[in-house]
Structure formats: structure tokens, C-alpha cells
Amino acid sequence: QVQLVESGGGSVQAGGSLRLSCAASGYTGRAYCMGWFRQAPGKQREGVAAISSYDGTHYTDSVKGRFTISKDNAKNTLYLQMNSLKPEDTAMYYCAARPALSCDSWYTTQFPYWGRGTQVTVSS
Fold first, then answer.
1. Which of 37, 45, 97 lies closest to 71, judged by CA?
2. What is the helix (H) or strand (E) element at residue 52, kind and residue range?
3. What is the 3 state secondary structure string of the chain?
4. Spatial separation of the C-alpha atoms in residues 15 and 36, rounded to whole Å
5. C-alpha angle with apex 73: 27 to 71, nearest 5 degrees?
6. Could you tell me if 61 and 46 are in contact, meaning their C-beta atoms sit under 8 angstroms apart?
7. Rounded-to-integer distance, Cα 2 and Cα 32, Å
8. Of 31, 26, 108, 20, which is closest to residue 70 (Cα–Cα)?
9. N- to C-terminal Cα distance for the chain?
């Protein structure tokens, strides 16, 4: 059973930066598409970024050029570097994983494994 634990959230002012981490365990040696998702109060959960060894990185348009997703396979850790943060980035951020060779699609419903989330608050 894959387990995911997020950390690194916090409160920052607009224009600031945060780095989220997601420690993963329980992998079975399969390939995984890993993703970061977020959910603001009253809104649906949305995809932020995804990564796989097969097809690289993917980003939703609103974070392109500001966020960077990466992973350290040796440490089984996924990261999300968030720069130039905006108040509209405020949300609970979740790490997720699904057994797949690529992230050709990365809809929320496709991911069976989820962390509990870490809160990011950006003030203006």
C-alpha cells in the first residue's frame, strides 16, 4: 500500500515562495505518475502538476512559469517548488500517485493514493 505524507506548507505574502515535499513509501517497484493537486474552500480539487519518468512534467496553465515539480527517486520524495505565489494559490495541497508509465492524463479521479494534505495560505 502506497503511503504519502506532505509537508512544507505555511503562510506567505504574495510574491513569496514555498517548497512542498511529499515522502512516499510502500512502492512495489512499478512505475508511477505522481501529482500535486489543490483544493480551495468551496471549490473542486484541481490538478497543479504531474511528473513521470516516462514523459516528464505537466502543469496546469495557471502555475506555468511559477511552479516546478520534481522528484528524488533515491529519497522517494516528490517536491513542488512554488515561486511568485498569489492569493489565488491559497488551498490545501495534496500529493497523489497512480500506477502508470506516463502522466498522459492526470485527472483527480485517476489517482488511487493520496496524502492528507498541507495548507498553503498566500496573503495580499
1. 97
2. strand 46-52
3. CCEEEEECCEEEECCCCEEEEEEEECCCCCCEEEEEEEECCCCCCEEEEEEECCCEEEECHHHCCCEEEEEECCCCEEEEEECCCCHHHCEEEEEEEEECCCCCCCCHHHCCEECCCEEEEEEC
4. 20
5. 110
6. no
7. 11
8. 20
9. 40
DSSP state of 62: G
Residue type, 62: S
The DSSP secondary-structure symbol of 84 reads S
Name every residue whose Cβ is closer than 8 Å to that of residue 83 and which is 6 or more positions away in sequence. 17, 66, 67, 68
User: CB of 15 within 8 A of CB of 26?
Assistant: no
DSSP 89: G
Cα maximum dimension of the chain = 43
Chain segment 63-108, per-residue pLDDT in tens: 999 999 999 989 999 999 999 999 999 999 999 999 999 998 899 9
All three cell numbers of 46 = 484541481
* pLDDT tens figures, 1-44: 899 999 999 999 999 999 999 999 997 668 899 999 999 999 99
